[in-house]
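Appendix B, record 7
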Amino acid sequence: MIRTKFRWYGRRDVGGKAHENYVARGFGDRSNRTLKLPPDEQPFFRIKEILLLYKDKLETLTFAVASTQGLDDFKPLVPEYIELLKPLRKLGSAQCDTACEIVEEVRRVVHVFRQVLDTLPIPSDVEKMPHTVVHLVFTMKRAAEQWEEAQQGVEQFSKEIVATVGKITALLNKDPTKAAAAASLSENHSDTVDELIQATQECRAIYRRMSEFLREAENKFQGDYFKGKQVSPDEIDMVRRRWTGLGISLDTLTDTMFATIATQILVGPSIAKAKIRGGFWNSSGTGRAGSSAHSNTSTGPKAILGTSGSDVETTAHSSLPKKASSFFQSLWHRIVSCFSLRRSG
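Structure tokens (predicted):
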């Protein structure tokens, strides 16, 4: 399972100023220059990291669900669990397709903007603006609409995460024999869905800032804006280099890369391979469903789905086994709280 480092730049509180400032820094060209510098490349690569995080956390959620089954064989998830997770995987995979499409829209903006730079300066007595300028405004408008629509897709994915956890809770409540297998999960895996929700919030913030950047550029270059503007060759060359550099960077975010992540999310992890590795099951402290899964002392990782070495810490606890749904009920309360906080913001 790929470990994707989930980096929060500043405080981890949802909607905090440090988080907003980080996202805003990637779209920080507020100068009064005639032309407009491109956004920074970092938010685009952060989108890739978030997609990998989706894959990583959805894998771990699948492993957690699988751990409530018997662990002595290599059978796949039972049909009920497969059907339960299918809508979430499908929406997660769609996030990769959307990211691929909106990055391609920005590539088009880069291409057309460079064509506009080749037409500058435009004389003040020209009767009709060059087609490339008109096309630039249209291209930016279309790209902004795509990035705005992408925000709605992330919102839908976030809601499906919450809905899926609720379904898992209901399903586990029907089978009290899974109590022992699920008991340790409340301690070991309580951050999985919480981090998924936070990742969707960061992704939406990036999408929103990019759509705002494109709308600002669209409005700036409307009509006869370029007519008669005296732009120095040095400024044109500098701006061209910056936009060209962004285009070169975006070319590394290939369609194949997005498609690969999308397929991995849609298909899901191999439960058999996870069991062969053994470390997941041993450190989780889970055994065959219905057997004792809690000892007085646990020294396994506190967060199997943790994204860095700093997430792994030794814990010691002594408690009675909780009921089968304790892990998912704990997650449910945390998710609803987090989800409500974001909507109120």
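Remarks on this record: The CA atoms of residues 114 and 240 lie 6 Å apart. Residues 1-18, 282-325 have pLDDT under 50 and may be disordered.
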